């Protein structure tokens, strides 16, 4: 496929994915350092009978951080044959994704996991992620997993 020009409509070659419900975190409290379990994605159902071989996965976040305090995110992409028994497919240790500015304030962004090769993954996949605020009691964050699946042997409808 090296002769395809992708500058005009690359979106038509893939499928956007909702990978989690919204998560909210309060430093030292609810949701902090707690895994957000992703939604089950049936790779067979999103590709018109053709499972995607790759997905770009990410976590969008909005945080209010004290000066020098951090938001870190760890993750696990999991796969399953039946949609109920899960195994880790790809994991990562925590990465600092945001640091509070001088005087504290809002930080927004996207933690991009990059391209996840799904060629050996089973039918069902999900993204679990774990946001961890370093401060205690005052910092807050909101987050959500999303992605884009591609690499079909037939184009999706």
Keywords for this entry:
single chain, 157 residues, mainly beta, 5-stranded antiparallel beta sheet, 4-stranded antiparallel beta sheet, 1 helix, elongated
What report would you give on this structure?
The radius of gyration is 17 Å and the shape is elongated. Strand 5 (70-80) and strand 6 (87-99) form a beta hairpin. It has 157 residues and is mainly beta. It has one domain. Helix content is 3%, strand content 52%. The strands form 2 sheets. Strands 1, 2, 4, 7 and 9 form a 5-stranded antiparallel β-sheet that branches.
Short description:
This protein is mostly beta strands.
Helix and strand pattern: EEEHEEEEEE
Fraction in helix: under 10%
Q: Residue-averaged pLDDT, rounded?
A: 90
| Distance between the amino and carboxyl termini | 19 Å
Q: Topology, pairings included?
A:
Blueprint: E1 14-18, E2 23-26, E3 41-42, H1 43-46, E4 54-65, E5 70-80, E6 87-99, E7 105-117, E8 124-133, E9 140-150
């Amino acid at each position: 496929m090296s002769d395809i020009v992708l500058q005009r409509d690359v979106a038509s070659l893939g499928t956007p994915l909702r990978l989690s419900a919204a998560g909210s975190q309060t430093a030292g409290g609810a949701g902090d350092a707690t895994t957000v379990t992703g939604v089950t994605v049936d790779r067979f159902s999103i590709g018109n009978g053709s499972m995607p071989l790759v997905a770009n996965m990410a976590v969008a976040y909005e945080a209010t951080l004290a000066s020098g305090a951090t938001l870190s995110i760890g993750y696990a992409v999991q796969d399953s044959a039946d949609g109920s028994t899960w195994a880790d497919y790809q994991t990562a240790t925590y990465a600092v994704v945001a640091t509070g500015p001088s005087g504290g304030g809002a930080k927004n962004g996207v933690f991009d996991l990059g391209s996840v090769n799904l060629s050996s993954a089973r039918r069902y996949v999900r993204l679990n992620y774990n946001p961890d605020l370093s401060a205690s009691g005052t910092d807050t964050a909101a987050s959500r997993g999303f992605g884009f699946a591609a690499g079909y042997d037939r184009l999706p409808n």
